TrEMBL record:
The keyword Lipid metabolism does not apply. Keywords: Hydrolase. It comes from the Bacteria. This is Amidohydrolase. GO terms for molecular function: hydrolase activity, acting on carbon-nitrogen (but not peptide) bonds. Residues 66-417 form the Amidohydrolase-related domain. Belongs to the metallo-dependent hydrolases superfamily. ATZ/TRZ family. The keyword Hydrolase applies. Transmembrane segments: none annotated.
Length: 465
């Protein structure tokens, strides 16, 4: 059995030769990757790499798949302390649960929540995540600290609402200055990538929507916004503007290649054309649709139209394999069954949507998402010596339908080993969990959360015998 901690204690100038290497052309045997300075320096057949780099150390892992790490194109790291409070609740839980919870978190609780969520991300094979921004009062630095300490690559947003939806809503000049400062703060950072966000269109003025989108675009950063997720929000927009939310963003000039739309589940044909024509990207969040949404994003139609999209969790559960399975399943249930579409995009589509396509949607295409020379060495080693992959006839499909996070033996970001069999190698996750167990309940108790239903546990206790 491989001792991953010892084998990968040093990864610079190291050739990794897995049984299969997941490249753009699919999972390939006989291929290897050279790691150097935190990046993939060379890719090729093992014999060729040995010839080109004779001084490099080599490790052979014949029973493993080496694949790009998953990228969560939409999540909320500061919601992890209350994650199961939303089960069974009706839509727009952000108004009754997430905004009150996040707004009540102090600096320490932002850190604990973010580090717990980052732990879950890495355990689930996510080497990168796009955080939509914390609504707490100015504690984004602690969220960044948590990502750095765990090794999670993070696209982190500064929320720029000027009409509400956050713990503190500054004036316009203060918001714009904070946005500029945020964009400048992480230039050249190996793991942290700045982004700007407005939570939903109705919590920002038209001028702020336009200006923040333009500022992000000029900086080469992503502009994040939740749009067309719930029917009530679509109707509010129609009442306020005579336009649906996506139409309103287009009208004010806030749609463009820098724009990352979370959800886009309730979209008309003309709105799909807007996404295509403006180059905007979508975070397709299938588990969120199952758990609390009003609809499922038409991801297959988006693909056919050339609309950029990647998979996101929306903070639901951090398991990249189960996310791919949910993405394919929801397209099958929502569209494929009625149309007699038995492939629903094929296994490769969902592998791409969880890695390469998610990197593009997240503004990280030049950084990660593929195993290719020059990109960051963010990757997973997946154990193929499992019943689920025996015998193997079509590994791409098998990863989508049989994959699970307990099959991930090792997680790497920026060329460094971060996780072995679900646990970090250089910090104490169980000590963190003990802190969370001790401190989460008081934090939840002081937040003005409004639940519609009691918990399932409490209802079970009152059931007649």
């Amino acid at each position: 059995m491989t001792d991953f901690r010892q084998t990968f204690a040093a990864t610079d100038n190291l050739i990794v030769a897995p049984g299969r290497l997941l490249l753009d052309s699919g999972p390939q045997p006989g291929m290897a990757a050279l790691l150097r300075n935190g990046s993939f320096a060379d890719i090729g057949a093992m014999a060729d790499l040995r010839a080109r780099h004779p001084a490099a150390r080599r490790v052979e892992l014949p029973d493993h798949l080496m694949m790009p790490g998953f990228i969560d194109s939409h999540t909320h790291l500061t919601q992890s302390l209350g994650k199961s409070l939303v089960f069974g609740e009706p839509s727009e839980i952000f108004r009754r649960i997430w905004v009150p919870l996040e707004g009540s978190l102090d600096e320490h609780m932002v850190y604990l929540s973010s580090k717990l969520a980052a732990l879950e991300c890495l355990r689930g094979g996510f080497t990168a995540a796009v955080d939509a921004g914390t609504r707490s009062a100015g504690h984004i630095g602690r969220l960044v600290d948590a990502a750095r300490e765990t090794g999670l690559r993070l696209v982190v947003a500064q929320i720029c609402n000027d009409l509400g939806g956050a713990a503190v809503v500054p004036n316009r000049a203060t918001i714009l200055q904070a946005a500029e400062t945020h964009l400048a703060a992480y230039q050249g950072d190996p793991l942290i990538h700045p982004s700007l966000a407005i939570s939903i269109p109705e919590v920002a003025s038209d001028a702020m929507l336009r200006d923040i989108a333009a500022m992000a675009g000029a900086a080469g950063a992503v502009f994040q916004i939740h749009v067309n997720e719930h029917l009530v929000a679509v109707e509010r927009s129609l009442v306020a503007h005579g336009r649906r939310p996506l139409e309103h963003l287009a009208q004010v000039g806030a749609l463009g290649p820098q724009t990352l739309i979370a959800h886009s589940t309730l979209v008309t044909p003309s709105e799909l054309n807007l996404l295509r024509d403006t180059g905007a990207a979508v975070a397709y969040n299938p588990v969120a649709s199952v758990w609390k949404g009003n609809a499922v994003a038409p991801a297959l139609q988006m693909q056919a139209l050339g609309i950029r999209f990647g998979l996101g969790t929306d903070g639901t559960r951090a398991d990249g394999f189960r996310l791919m399975d949910a993405a394919e399943t929801m397209q099958r249930a929502g569209y494929g069954l009625a149309a007699g579409d038995s492939s629903c995009g094929g296994g490769w589509l969902w592998l791409d949507a969880a890695t390469r396509m998610a990197a593009d949607a997240s503004g990280l295409a030049g950084v990660t998402g593929r195993i290719a020379p020059g990109l960051a060495a963010d990757f997973l080693l997946v154990d193929l010596d499992r019943p689920e992959f025996t015998p193997s006839h079509d590994l791409a499909w098998e990863l989508v339908r049989y994959g699970n996070r307990d099959q991930i033996d090792a997680v790497f970001t920026d060329g460094r080993l971060r996780m072995v069999q679900g646990w970090p190698v250089d910090w104490d996750a169980r000590a963190l969990m003990a802190q969370v167990r001790e401190q989460a309940s008081p934090a939840i108790a002081k937040a003005p959360i409004q639940r519609i239903h009691p918990t399932a546990d409490s209802l079970m206790a009152t059931r007649p015998a």
